[in-house]
Write a structure and sequence with these properties.
alpha+beta, Pnp Oxidase, Chain A, 8-stranded antiparallel sheet, 4 helices, 8 strands, about 30% helix
Length: about 140
């Protein structure tokens, strides 16, 4: 097992279409975890969600998040991080982001239609700025 370098972290987060699990806190203090599709924009993690979703409501009340992305195949690896989210309701470039996210998971051909559909469903763009991270690879080595 080894700690990932910054280059390994970027590759881990961009090369395979892994889901990100985002943990938020409900107003009563209980945790909520949800899987999301995401992309990187520089150092920011970007995903979309409906503004009425549990995670969106939680993030409006408390912008602190914990995230996890893992590789479930040998030799296994993961990134676990904390950060803060900024919320952008119906930004002008929402279709750009939903299409970019769709392209990562569905491919070039399906991305334009999926991006348009997701922009109708997901009206909130979320950006996470990571403040602390643990990243390990080769766990079963």
């Amino acid at each position: 097992m080894h700690e990932m370098s910054s280059e390994e972290i970027r590759a881990f987060l961009t090369t395979s279409p892994r889901t990100l699990k985002v943990a938020t806190v409900r107003t009563d203090g209980t945790p909520h975890v949800a899987p999301v599709w995401f992309v990187l924009d520089g150092d920011d993690i970007v995903f979309s969600t409906p503004s009425r979703s549990v995670k969106a409501r939680n993030l409006r009340a408390n912008q602190r998040v914990c995230i996890c992305v893992d590789d479930e195949q040998p030799p296994f690896g993961f990134i676990s991080a904390t950060g803060s989210a900024t919320l952008h309701l119906r930004p002008d470039d929402l279709v750009h982001w939903t299409t970019r996210i769709a392209r990562r998971y569905l491919g070039d051909q399906a991305a334009p239609a999926a991006g348009k559909l997701y922009a109708e469903i997901d009206d909130l763009l979320v950006r996470i700025r990571v403040t602390a991270m643990v990243a390990r690879a080769g766990i079963a080595d």
